[in-house]
Amino acid sequence: MNTEEKPAQTSAFEVIGGEARVKALVERFYDLMDLEPGYKELRAAHGSDLADARQKLFWFLCGWLGGPQLYAEKFGHPRLRARHLPFAIASEEAGQWMLCMREAMAEVIDDADLRAALDKALNDLAYHMRNRDDPPANT
C-alpha cells in the first residue's frame, strides 16, 4: 500500500490567477464584443446593457474553472442550455462567441497549454448551446 500523499491538483482557476484574472477575461471578452464589428450579431443578442451578462459570466466561469461556485450559490445549477433557449443561437452565434473568447483569452491568459485546453472545452460548450437550426447553405 502506497502511503505517500498525492499532490493537490491545481485548478484552471488557480493557473489563470484567481478571481482578478477571471474578471479581466470576462471584461475583455465583453469589451471586444462591444467594440469589434465582427461580433455585431453576438452583441445584438445581449441587449443594450452588458452589466448583468458580465457579472453572470464571471460568476459562472469562476466555478466552471474550479474556483468558488458563485453562480451556483446564487442561482443553482447553471442549466446553460435551458437558460439560453430564449436566445437564437445557431453556429454563427456560437462561432462569434468562441472567436471573441479566443481573442480575450489570448490577451489575458499567459499559459498556452491552459489556453488550448480552455479553447477546446469552451468551443464544445459554445456549440452545445445551439438551439436553432443553421440556415441552409447558399446553393
List the helices and strands and how they pair.
Layout: H1 12-16, H2 19-35, H3 40-44, H4 51-64, H5 70-75, H6 80-84, H7 91-108, H8 112-128
Helix pairs in contact: 2-4, 2-7, 7-8
Describe the structure.
This protein has helices at residues 12-16, 19-35, 40-44, 51-64, 70-75, 80-84, 91-108, 112-128. With 139 residues, it is an all-alpha fold. The protein has one domain (16-128): Globins (Globin-like, Orthogonal Bundle), CATH 1.10.490.10. Helix 2 (19-35) packs across helix 4 (51-64). The longest helix has 18 residues, at 91-108. The radius of gyration is 17 Å and the shape is globular.
Oligomer: single chain
Biggest sheet character: none
Number of domains: 1
Order of helices and strands: HHHHHHHH
Percent in helix? 55-70%
Q: Write the CATH fold name.
A: Globin-like
Name of the CATH first level:
Mainly Alpha
Shape: globular
Gross CATH architecture: Orthogonal Bundle
Low-pLDDT residue spans? none
Amino- and carboxy-terminal Cα gap:
66 Å
How many beta strands in the DSSP annotation? Answer: 0
- Rg over CA atoms, rounded to whole Å, is 17 Å
- The name of the CATH superfamily reads Globins
Taken as a percent bin, the fraction of beta residues is under 5%
Structural class by sheet pairing and helices: mainly alpha
Number of helices: 8
Overall pLDDT: 90
